[in-house]
Amino acid sequence: MKIRKNIAVSDSGLVFNPENGESFSVNPIGVELTSLMREGKSFDEISNVILKKYNTEKQVFEKDFHEFLETLSNYGLLDKNEKEKA
Amino acid sequence: MKRKKLNIAVTGLNAVDSPGPGVSVIRALREAESFDVRIIGLAYESLEPGIYMHDIVDKTYQIPYPGAGTDTLLPRLEYIHSKEKLDVIIPNFDAELFPFIKLEKKLQAMGIRMFLPTLHQFEERQKVNLSDFGIKYGIKAPRSRVLYDMSTIYSLTSEFSFPVIVKGKFYDASVAYSLEQVRNYYNKISAKWGLPIIIQEFIHGTEFNVTGLGDGKGKTIAAIPMRKQYITDKGKAWGGISISDEKMLELTRHFLKVTKWRGGFELELMKNKDNELYLLEINPRLPAWIYLSVGVGQNIPEALVNLALGKKVEPFSEFKIGKMFVRYSWDMIVDREEFEQISIYGEL
Fold this sequence. Notes:
CATH architecture of chain A: Orthogonal Bundle
Shape of chain B: globular
Largest sheet of chain B: 6 strands, antiparallel
Number of domains of chain A: 1
Oligomer: heterodimer
Radius of gyration of chain A: 12 Å
């Protein structure tokens, strides 16, 4: 569940893939999630951080987070070796 | 230390919506660190914008179209050389490379240097030969068939599934989804550029380009991959970004090693969903987006000039990733007298 090492995510939310030149934008929560993923945190660890910080249901967050991971994967931004562990 | 001033002639001043590389090449030369330049523009038509860009081009001469042959071109170049004492010529059009390659020795005897592919390299990578080129050098290229006769169109269905790409010998390409469309494009493109027409397998994927420079001995002096971000309706890049795809760089180094390519080039590549790279075209000259090479830290036109002058040029080892170019159009106000000068006297 790691973002590929060479993917750049700026504080403003611009995600740049230097291998194919594609760029995307993520919202502030997206920046926070990608930052936690970069730190190597597990799904549960990230879930705990977000649930402590924001007023949301665990089920709702986990569904959204899975969708977010799916999107990152579809755009080739996740480390393939790590994806299986997610 | 004062840098030596070189007189460099450059073609491709047509900075239009399907731009020639001349203006980009000149901008790179003007930023060269190893020499200073006086730029002599070589133009085919009176309205090539570069002619009127006086901070880009110092003096322009009209030259005859490539179709006129080397017997017409050589005396014109001799005249220009007598006025300007040319050190180097950089031709930037596919169609003019053949006469310039033919004239290389004569020009060298006059003291004018170029750094062009050999005639063999130039011919071998022609669109009509690209399939065989791929097989010979172990590079994936789309299957293709060369058509000289409209009646052979009907046999395509046994070899290709639609869509296919219909290409002209030098320029133009269209995607055809049926035999009817193939016939239309065959007529349209052959009327403009002549025969043959090339039918190429359509590879689904994302297009990338690599520009670079080979030293003619198999070494890669420069290589920069780019992804087009904004494409005009003519398929030209109006914006692009440098990327770091190692497979593309590997393929480029392989291409230069096995062909011993001499000079600048642009590879057009397609990456399919399985991340396989297909070589769609080899342009035997620098591309119109070559100024990006300066932006990423590899001044390819400067290196090309130094190679032409027989200097030792060390290969570039790195470039900046994520550098973009964004092209723009700009209206210049030009006095009628200037237009008159270039149109009537062939010089400005």
